Amino acid sequence: MSEIDTPLVRAVNVHKSFGRLEVLKGINLDVTTGQVVCLLGPSGGGKSTFLRCLNHLEKIDRGSVWVDGKPVGYRLSQNRFYEIREREVALQRAQIGMVFQRFNLFSNRTALENVTEGPIQVLKVNPKEAHETAVRLLERVGMMDWANRYPAQLSGGQQQRVAIARSLAMNPKLMLFDEPTSALDPELVGEVLTVMRGLAADGMTMIVVTHEVGFAREVADKAVFMFDGIIAEEGIPVDVFSNPRHERTQQFLSKVL
């Protein structure tokens, strides 16, 4: 396989258990550069756990996760995987932006300071350069007018847009979204999805755990349905939503469409 053909993200036979509960039962998934992949399915199916495995927030029990040709959380030597130090994992994570359900902003930092913190502390970017980048990104997500406000002074939708800007400030190769609108009031969902549509249009590689079927149908290049720790079905959204083959996918769509 040539470098051009190599997926940006490759999950190979990923298994994860918590005690006796097997949450992921051998997940295989490829995501190419610029693709938007939406993970859908009922709660408890393993979607969020899988997302956290992609940046080593959860250590997998078996299998491997590769981002940009390198194993996440490990180094490969003589056909064996060796776990790397936390500092090296942190540098890998810096290339993988993640936006959570809860916005996880620093409560004692303004919106602007939240966006500059990572580049300055982790990437050792010059503060002036980090400030300029933060201003550009806050403008991009429509939050520059609130740059000097603290998270408690912002709505949920505004906080989530700041969280997206904060992830983008690290100049990631990949963005992970873990149900980014599920904690928002319905009238605030649209403003976050608009930002995400813009990222997709700009060619950002994105893996999105979501219950927003309309967004998945409109924006995703690939829809993936997960149930009980497996991928039951994946494909082009128009095909998957219009003609689901798996019985569990049919049941799920009959309830949400």
Shape: globular
- Multimer state: single chain
Q: Given the helix and strand composition, which structural class is it?
A: alpha/beta
Overall average residue pLDDT: 92
Distance between the termini: 39 Å
- What is the tally of beta strands? 12
Strand content: 25-35%
Q: Major beta sheet, specifics? A: 6 strands, mixed
Helix content: 25-40%
Enumerate the strands of the largest sheet in spatial order, edge to edge or round the barrel.
Answer: 8-9-10-3-11-12
Question: Which parts are unreliable, with pLDDT below 50 for 5 consecutive residues or more?
Answer: none
Radius of gyration: 18 Å
Order of helices and strands: EEEHEEEEHEHHHEHEHEEHH
Number of helices: 9
Relevant terms:
257 residues; alpha/beta; four-stranded antiparallel sheet; 12 strands; globular
Task: Describe the protein.
Helices cover 36% and strands 26% of the residues. A hairpin with a 2-residue loop joins strand 1 and strand 2 (21-31). The model has no long low-confidence stretch (mean pLDDT 92). The radius of gyration is 18 Å and the shape is globular. It has 257 residues and is α/β, with parallel strands linked by helices. Helix 3 packs across helix 4 (127-140) and helix 5 (156-168) packs parallel to helix 6 (186-201). The strands form three sheets. The protein has a six-stranded mixed β-sheet, sandwiched between helices. A four-stranded antiparallel β-sheet has the order 2-1-4-5, with helices on one face. A two-stranded antiparallel sheet has the order 6-7.
